[in-house]
């Protein structure tokens, strides 16, 4: 894997990590990305800003716009790279649940 990145990295800040949950705030400058990853846990996302996502997934890419405060959840196993496709900074809180 190359040591060079074409995009700036999104900035994760772990707010809480205990036996039940891991809560991370993700901050993205325009064009920033998370890097390709697979979610090992189910999770909930709560946008802190309006978010214009470019989701790069194994089957292709798609755009998704989510309004500030419009929470959603996904099961473990999601595989993607999340990119800020907008022209403004964006952020969201990701809550990974460790217990069912």
Automatic annotation (TrEMBL):
Keyword Oxidoreductase recorded: yes
Keyword Oxidoreductase attached: yes
Domain Cupin type-2 stretches: 25-95
Record keywords, A-Z: Dioxygenase, Oxidoreductase
Highest taxon listed in the record's lineage: Bacteria
InterPro entries: Cupin_2, RmlC-like_jellyroll, RmlC_Cupin_sf
Molecular function GO terms recorded: dioxygenase activity
Designated name of the protein: Quercetin dioxygenase-like cupin family protein
